[in-house]
Design goal:
single chain, alpha+beta, 4-stranded mixed beta sheet, globular, binds glutathione
Length: 228
């Protein structure tokens, strides 16, 4: 059975959504990143980047949420747009846009606001600005069409949902007012039973919630090594 290495964080949750939507059988294997389980040798053999999610599907190992979404969609033939070079181009562009822009800038925005030991105005503003800019680009796209790729609900919508449902965490409670079209998509997907099961998956395991010294050592390893 497909093994799904996960936590309740945004990137694993998008993959959980796909697995639930596609009705695939899977074994959910928790990786408690606040306890440092992502750095265990056996997990590094699956994902050398020491992050979740990852999957092992028979003799195939895939890490990185966007790679996993694409792999599973292509394998099952589900949640892809109709076959055409034009739509394939759009699919790849928007998947990479979320992978390289929305995710990292949102993550850093939360990091500098919630976890950095000093509040650095420059970093706070840069990452919040870029996160807001990226969400604005998604919102403008969704003002023109129901889903990210034409009329079909695809892995790009799942990818977007994974981060966009956390807009208030990334940009504050008032931020939704700026992205009404994105909110429409997040609400629509959030109401799907598969999304509710994906979000509830983390509750089947007792993940550590405290951001204490152990968690900081595991997740913010730069605190122990000055490279610049
Ligand atoms: N590009 C990767 C990023 C994965 C990632 O940053 N995962 C976070 C959770 S959303 C994680 O494992 N954090 C633990 C850590 O940084 O130690 C993906 O999309 O899967």
């Amino acid at each position: 059975m497909l093994k799904f290495y996960f936590s309740g964080a945004p990137n694993p949750t998008k993959v959980a959504l796909f697995l639930e939507e596609a009705g695939l059988a899977y074994e959910a294997i928790p990786v408690d990143t606040r306890k440092g389980e992502q750095h265990k040798l056996e997990y590094l053999a699956i994902n050398p980047n020491a992050k979740v999610p990852a999957i092992v599907d028979g003799d195939v190992t895939v890490f990185d949420s966007n790679a996993i979404l694409l792999y599973l969609a292509e394998k099952t033939g589900k949640f892809l747009p109709p076959k055409s070079d034009k739509l394939r181009g759009e699919l790849l562009s928007w998947l990479m846009f979320v992978a390289s822009g929305v995710g990292p800038f949102s993550g850093q925005s939360v990091h500098f606001r919630a976890y950095a030991p000093e509040k650095i105005d420059y970093a706070l503003n840069r990452y919040a600005y870029e996160a807001q800019r990226h969400f604005g680009i998604l919102d403008a796209r969704l003002a023109k069409q129901k889903y990210m790729i034409g009329d079909a609900y695809t892995i790009v919508d799942m990818d977007v949902w994974g981060w966009a449902r956390l807009v208030p965490t990334v940009l504050g409670d008032a931020a939704w007012a700026k992205f009404p079209h994105l909110k429409r998509l997040v609400d629509e997907i959030g109401a799907r039973p598969a999304a509710q099961r994906a979000v509830a998956l983390k509750d089947k395991h007792k993940f550590k919630t405290e951001m204490d010294d152990e968690a900081r050592r595991a997740m913010f390893r730069h605190l122990q090594e000055k490279v610049a």
